[in-house]
Amino acid sequence: MRNVLQTVEKVLDHDASVFIRGESGVGKDYLAEAIHACSGRRAEPYVHVDCATIPADLFESELFGYEKGTFTDAVARRLGRLELAGSGLAYFDNIDTLTPPLQAKLLRVMQERRFTRLGGNQNVEFSARVIASASGDLDALLASGAFRRDLFYRINVVTVTLPPLRERREDILPLAQSFAGKRKKIDDDAAALLISHSWPGNVRELRNAIERAVLTGDSDTVAVDALPLSGVEVAGAAARGHWTLEELERTYIRLVLRETRSNFSKAAEILGINRKTLLEKRKKYGLD
To answer: What is the pTM assigned to this prediction?
Structure first.
């Protein structure tokens, strides 16, 4: 992450396009916002264009805007997102989902730095900086011809790759504590589980897990039994984190007690032990 931030710092006040690579949930949109907020264009608009959520048949009108009377519902002129971006920043999220015809139209805008509203004949200057990101396998799309190389070269002047959370585990606890807030502390068992979990959904998954634990937990700490992780995930995380058998047993018993709402008979049945043994283990591990 230090390397990422050092690269970003070098390009803050340049107009070069930035391409952000990274898995879903790593925080590409937050990085784009941070680049804008720290740049010389910070006082200008920041416009987020999520290419994956705009229907293909509406993309041009969303991007370029339209003049009054262009189609039945066009009762007034509407400015498109490129025009609204002004001299600020236009962030094209999930650009890899654009169809080839839309890729060609966006490429033309980036080459000519102007466009025309639908139904109009007046050129509109486009001076915003462009940042783009992709969550899919863009290299495969380039190889197959599904994504235009000439557009890729336009958006890929500077590349920033955000590593997945599993490759920067030292960030997990600071992020988790930030999501939990100052009033909730993360206990040791929960911290161990958080660090050892693979987090396939990255920072987004971590944030959702912590927010759910904060909302559903009863104490002033984030405990392991409040984390929305299954028994299989706990066991897998324990193996990756090299937990002792005792640590795993304590964590799993706590999880089963949570799932059964402290129904000791049912929990003992799931654990394959009798009720008396469960109560002894509960006392041993200090499980409330």
So the answer is: 0.79
